[in-house]
Every structure is written in C-alpha cells, then in structure tokens.
Recover the amino acids of this structure.
C-alpha cells in the first residue's frame, strides 16, 4: 500500500510534510481532510482521530505499520526511510544547527504569526505591532545566516522548508519581509521556485483565491 499523507487546504504543517515527501521522491497519496470557512477542519477525518486522538490535527503520515502525526517527527522518519536526497546536512554539528533552525521556525517564529490570526481586525494594536516586530527581528537573524550561504543551514534542508512555509503564513497575516533583508528575499525566491515547493504551495494559493482571501504578492502567479 502506498504511503498516505493527510493534510488540509490551509495546513502549514501539512504543506511542510508534502514538500519534504516530494523532495524525497516518495510515491504517496495525498488526502485532504474537510475544511470549513472558520478555519477549522470538520468533520474530523477518522484516520486523523485514530492516529492523533489528542490534538486531532494534520499532518498524518501512514507508511505500512508506521503512523506519525508531528511534522518534525515525519521529517526525521522520511530522512531515515529515504536517505537520498539528504535533507539534513552531513556533519553532526551542522545537522544539529539545522534541526534547531527547523524547531525555531515552528516554536519561536511561528507563535508570533499565530498571535496575528486573531488581530487582523486591529493590526495597529500593541499586540499586533509587537508580533510583527518580533517577526522582523527573526528575519534579521535569518538575513545574517545568509551572508555566506544560499540556504539557512548551508545546503537546502528541512530548515528551509519549515521557515518558508512559516513565512508564507506570516506574509498572509501582515508580517512579511521587506527590502531590509534582501538576502532573505532572494532566498525566498530560490526556495519558492523549487518544483516540490510549488506543487504544495500553488494549490494552497488557488484555494485562498477561491475563498476570496488574499494571496501574498510574491505568490501571485
């Protein structure tokens, strides 16, 4: 039976997994769970409930008797299961730094974006301004990493996939990049033109447009 990936039309974490699987050349079936206009996924898909009964969220990966529900854990599994092409750097220290960058995208950068979800009606409020400022500081940090390299951890890696998708959602919610970080903007262009990234992101943008929602300017084809 083919590998199955359960995602959703606007799932950042699901898109991460889809991109990684495509980069690895995995033959998989993509299952999109139901979506409602209030940004929830109802009714819950039975396989999502079975594999992830506590959080009840995508992504879910099922590969034979392996069933996983966390995007970072799925990254690790895909790297072990399909070691080529590698999406972690080769050296121990380099891999550790790349893993930290992937985690920071999810747990340091993205929480600021989550705060903006409920502040779209008042982007001039103090909490919204603070969240955007925190995103800008993170962009500056990533700009510094790109002084001597094309990708965040040296070679293209899971760290790039994670931060690219987190930034897509940041831009959607009003915390996009500016010309203050030209290297980072160029990095975004390199990552965004990868076939695996376009295969996951372009349908997401078409879905946004079909819902009458804004599509980031840099993703308007």
């Amino acid at each position: 039976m083919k590998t199955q990936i359960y995602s959703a039309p606007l799932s950042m974490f699901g898109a991460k997994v889809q991109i990684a699987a495509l980069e690895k050349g995995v033959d998989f079936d993509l299952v999109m769970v139901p979506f409602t206009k209030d940004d929830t996924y109802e009714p819950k898909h039975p396989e999502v409930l079975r594999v992830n009964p506590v959080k009840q969220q995508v992504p879910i990966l099922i590969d034979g008797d392996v069933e996983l529900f966390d995007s970072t854990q799925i990254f690790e599994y895909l790297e072990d299961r399909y070691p080529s092409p590698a999406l972690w750097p080769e050296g121990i220290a380099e891999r550790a730094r790349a893993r930290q960058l992937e985690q920071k995208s999810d747990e340091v950068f993205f929480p600021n974006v989550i705060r903006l979800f409920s502040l779209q009606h008042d982007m001039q409020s103090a909490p919204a301004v603070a969240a955007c400022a925190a995103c800008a500081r993170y962009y500056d940090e990533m700009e510094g990493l790109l002084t001597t390299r094309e990708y965040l951890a040296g070679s293209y890696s899971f760290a790039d996939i994670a931060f690219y998708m987190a930034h897509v959602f940041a831009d959607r919610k009003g915390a996009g990049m500016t010309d203050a970080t030209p290297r980072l903007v160029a990095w975004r262009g390199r990552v965004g033109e990868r076939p695996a990234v376009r295969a996951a992101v372009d349908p997401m943008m078409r879905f946004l447009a079909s819902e009458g929602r804004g599509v980031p300017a840099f993703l308007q084809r």
